[in-house]
Each structure stands twice: as C-alpha cells, then as structure tokens.
Amino acid sequence: MSVEKKKVEGWDEPSAKERLALLNRTETIAMVGVSAKKSRPSNFVATYLLSSSANFEIFFVNPVEDEILGKPCYKSLSDLPVVPDMVDVFRKSEDLPEVASEAVEIGASSLWIQLGLWSVEAAEIALAGELELVMDRCIKIEHARFHGGLHLAGFDTGVIDSRRSKK
Amino acid sequence: MNDREWGFKTRAIHAGGGPDTATGARNVPVYQTTSFVFEDTRDAADIFALQKFGSIYTRISNPTVNAFEERMASLEGGIGSVATSSGMSAEFLTAAALASSGDSFVTSSAIYGGTHTMFDVSLGKFGIEARFVEGDDPDSFDAVIDKTTKFLYTEIVGNPSGSIADISVLASVAHSHDIPLVIDATFATPYLCRPIDFGADIVLHSATKFIGGHGNSIGGVVTESGRFNWGNGRFPEMTEPVATYNGLKYWENFGEYAFCTKLRSEQLRDLGASLAPMNAFLLIQGLETLPFRMDGHVANAKTVASFLENHSEVSWVNYAGLESSPHHELANKYMPKGPGAIFTFGVKGGRESGAKFIDSLQLISHLANVGDVRSLVIHPASTTHQQLSDEDLASGGVSADMVRLSVGLEDSDDILWDLDQALEKASS
Questions:
Q1: With pLDDT > 90 as the criterion, what percentage of chain B qualifies?
Q2: The dihedral formed by the CA atoms of B67, B69, B74 and B76, expressed in degrees to the nearest 10
Q3: I want to staple B376 with a disulfide (CB 3.0 to 4.6 A). Which of A57, A109, B277, B406 is the partner?
C-alpha cells in the first residue's frame, strides 16, 4: 500500500488544513478510472462521494463503461458537460502523466491522485498548469476525517476544534 | 486542525470530543440508544456495505463510544481504536481477528491469571493454540514461532510478576516473522508508556483500571498502529474477498484502516462484546484527568514501595520503580515517568500473617481490582489461590506471603499509616 514518495521540486504535500480548504472549495469532481465492480476501492470511494455524507457533483470518466452507480460515463475528460473543479484519479502510475495533461487542458483547478499512487512526472505537469495537487491520499478518507465519518469508526482524525461544526 | 501537534494533556481532554454536531453540547453526550434511524433505504444500504460511515446499532458503534475510541487512539499514537465491554473481551476479539482454528500464538506465561486461562482453555477449545514461554525473554518467543503463529503477546508490566516487557526487541522478533506484536498496556496507560512508539502493532487495555480510574466501569479497548503490512501473505482474511460484504478485501479497500475496520465489522459485530455508552462516558471522564492521576499514583507508589522496603515486617518488595528491582533498567527505558502503581510485596510469616495483615487494614480496600483512586489490596494465597498448596502456589509464581497493592491517590501519610499498623498487627 505504501509508495516511494520521490521529491517533487517546488511542491510540498498539502497539510491537513490545506486539504480541508481544497475540499471545501471543490463543488464538481471528475473521477477517472472508477471500476463498475462493487467490491473495488474506487467504487467504494464513488459510492461515498455520491452519498449524503458528501455534497459534490460527481462525473465519471471511463471509456469502457456506459454507466456506473446509475450515472453516465464519459469517454474522456474533454467529453464532460462541465469543467470540473477537481480531477480525481484511480489509474495506474504510468497513466498518471496523461491524465494530468488532460486535466490541465480542460482547465480543472486541482488534481487528486489516489492512495498508493505517486508520479513525479504527473505532478510536474499539474504544477506547471497551476493545478493544486494531492498525491497518495484517499479523497474519501480525507473527507471523512474532517466531516465526522472517521470519527464514527473510532479512528483518530487529529481534529481538535472547539467551534461548532457548520455541517 | 491537525497541523498542530497537540500535547498529551490537551488530547486527553479534547481528542474525539468536539462540540456535538446536533446540539452544540460541549461535553460528550451519552447517546443512550440502541439504534440510529437511517436517512433512507439507500443510506442504510451504503452504511451496511461499509461504503459510508455511520451509526447503525450500538453493538457495532455508538457516538459516545466513538469519542472514547478516538481519544484512546490519539493518546496511544494509533490510527484507530475499537472499544469493548471489558479488557478480557479486548483480548478475545483481538485473538479472534488474528487467529483461526489450527493457528497458534506465543505469549508470556507471566500474565494475568484470567488471561492465561482464557488463552489456554477458551481459545484452546476453538483450536487456537497458546504457546506459553517463561518470562519475557525475546529468544524464547522466537524459538517457538512457526508458520501457524499469528501474533506475539505480553503485558507491559506483568500481573502480578512485575516484570517489564522489552517491547522493541519483541517487536523485532515479531516483525522478522511478519507477525504483529500485541501488548497489554493496562498497568502503564498511554501516559506512562506508548508501546506503538517502541514498535508494537496492537495495544490492549482493560480500561476498567487507570483509564477509568475511579472503579466505576468495566471496559476495554484495542488500538492499532496502522503501520503493519496486513498484505504480507500471512493473514488471508485481510486480503481475500469477504462474502458478507459484497466481496470487498479489507487490505485493498481500507489499507492502513483495515485491521480496525475488520475488528469492528466482524469480531465486534459477531461476538457482541460492545462497550455501553454510559461506561464510555465515564471512561472519557477518567481520561480527562489521566496525566494528573498517573503522576499522583506513581509518586505515591514510589513513597509506599520505599517505605515497605525498609519495614521490618516486610520480607521483599517487587516494584520496578525501586533501584533494587531487576526490572528497574527496562522500566526506565519504557516508562521513564515511573512503572505505574501496582506491585507486590511479602509479609513476614507467610500465608497466615498475610491474611491477618489484610484483615487489619482500615483504609486500603480488600478487593479484586487495581487502578482505582482508592488504594486496593489482595492476598492471593488466602483468596483467589486459597485452594492451592504452597508448592502449587510457587509454581504459579505466587508465594504464600505475596500481597498485591494498587496504590491510590489518598495522602501518602495515611496509606503508610494504614500499612504500618496492619503490618504490626500481622506480626503480633
């Protein structure tokens, strides 16, 4: 599950505060490489993001499926009816630079590369295109960390805040 | 936000206990309910399939219990915790999660008698073999590990032997065989020792003791580090499809969160040994003052141990906080703030004097618990082990004159007075 985190020049992994701020700014997410199989991690993440736990508009990019979790699949990022705020990727490491290039091309604001994935080349493409970048993180876990889900499963969120949640 | 590394005392008060989202209640509310209404059928399906986090039924999860779990995970430096109805159930659930019929595990024999029996008899009935080794010598553990072995187990401070586990060496032994090290840290609490910092993978507590601290609630907790590679091939239940959850694989789907997810959604779900919300609330109250209480317990224990060591009616004192203890060096390594407040000593005159000593105590309570604000005492030879001969006692590591003391938070002068007057009566 662990990846070798090779240094990306001019970039530090976003802190917890920065990850939360990014999620708060994000309204639309294009998920690239989600499996239609219910048991796959990507399908779990998609189900979570579509559930009442989260409040995103989700688009699937998958050239071999017509529909995932009742939503249509688009062949590529450029086929989407909107410019998504975020591109969330589940593809293997070799495919990441290509997805990063497409994300820059369509004008997305951020690239989120999922847990267990790391690509210096993809990172450099995203940063050159002025996209915000997260790598080797699960968007479901990070969302659940800040919105009570991890807490309800007995996990340490690291969150200490005396202010009332605005959720 | 977790950009700041909050201190231990801050986390003891705040971790897992933000203002209640529904009401703004500042203290953690007691969610005294069996069940939680779903938003709709899709919501229910998502939660049941583990695709969404949420509360279903208090046997599996409850918001008051969750607050206790997150606080324990934070204090232990683990990724997450699962609370249980008692320390014994924390041990049983962990063994049930890691081992199946035909598997084995290696444990020190110098552990709490109740655990010894559960390992030997109850787990044995299910075909899980406990391999007992003398003391905490890491080489003895190493020698009996084979391909059926799923974990190593010991107590940070042996009950009642008082030995201190060499956690980092035991962790190396375990990891060289691709198996986790499980440490029962009940006598230390995360304030005195965090076994995960020394390489342990799973930490267990009887929260009944110092964590609750006030002798009012039975409870237990399992905390995992989130660092163990459950995909190493020795734990097929972590890597193969789970039929009851649509074919998901714990390790693939949950990664570092896999062990705690499995423990809750299989072992806790199936065995039903869940912590009651009211008990979780009381244990949380205990945690909030844990650092202060433990400092007080250790200070009193050191005073009492030194006093007893110099008392004419005491034949020996076994407290790792004393320089005379063979366990002193390891205690300094793993518990520099002090090795807790539970230890044993010998009353001159053996079994009869021991009984007389107990019956003469006025302040210190004679009962079968430890880790209370009150000072507690028990004399195994005249109570829990009274049916055994002196020879049988000795082979079980219990001598006829052995008294176990759990030093409380009363004025130390009063504790010394009570011990002194009872020792005088025992000798007359």
A1: 84
A2: 150
A3: B406
CA–CA min distance A10, chain B (Å): 20
CA–CA dist B385, B252 (Å, integer): 48
Q: Which of A1, A157, A162 sits opposite B231 (nearest CB)?
A: A1
Mean residue pLDDT of chain B comes to: 94
Contact A101, A77 (CB under 8 A): no
Q: What is the pLDDT of residue B5?
A: 87
Report the C-alpha gap between A101 and A90 in whole angstroms. Answer: 15
Q: Min CA distance, B192 vs chain A (Å)?
A: 20
More reliable by pLDDT, A8 or B246: A8
Q: Record the tokens describing residue B97, joined without a space.
A: 């999660």
Q: What is the ipTM, given to two decimal places?
A: 0.90
Hunting for tokens 């423990």 — which residue is that? B263
Query: In sequence order, what are the beta bridge partners of A20?
Result: none
Q: What is the CATH number of domain B8-287?
A: 3.40.640.10
Report the residue of chain B nearest A167, measured CA to CA: B21
Query: What pLDDT, on a 0 to 100 scale, did the predictor assign at position B89?
Result: 98
Q: How far is CA A111 from CA A71, A86, B277, in A?
A: 22, 6, 41
Please report residues of A whose CB lies closer than 8 A to that of B249: 39
Nearest to A152 among B53, B246, B256 (CB): B53
d(CA A48, CA A28): 15
**Best interface-test mutation with B: which of A152, A161, A163, A165 has the largest number of B CBs within 10 A?**
A152
Query: Can you give the pTM of this predicted structure?
Result: 0.93
Residue in A closest to B242 by C-alpha:
A39
Q: Average pLDDT in the B146-154 region?
A: 98
Structural domain including A44 reads 16-153
Rounded Cα distance between A162 and B17, Å, is 9
Model pLDDT for residues A75-101, shown as the tens digit of each residue? 999 999 999 999 999 999 999 999 999
pLDDT higher than 90, residue B135: no
Q: What is the number of CB-based contacts under 8 A between chain A and chain B?
A: 132
Residue B408, amino acid: G
Q: What are the sequence ranges of the domains in chain B?
A: 8-287, 291-427
Domain count, chain A: 1
Fold of B291-427: Aspartate Aminotransferase, domain 1 (3.90.1150)
CATH number at residue A135: 3.40.50.720
In this model, does residue A167 exceed pLDDT 70? Answer: no
Instruction: For residue B240, list chain A residues with Cβ-Cβ distance below 8 A.
Output: none
With respect to residue A7, please indicate whether it lies within any of the assigned structural domains. Answer: no
Does residue B237 have a pLDDT over 60? yes
pLDDT at B391: 73
Q: Are A116 and B11 a contacting pair at CB < 8 A? A: no
pLDDT band with cut points at 50, 70 and 90 for residue B400: confident
Examine residue A9 and state whether it is found in any structural domain, yes or no: no
From chain B, the residues in CB contact with A144 under 8 A are 53
> What is the band of B134 on the pLDDT scale with cuts at 50, 70, 90?
confident
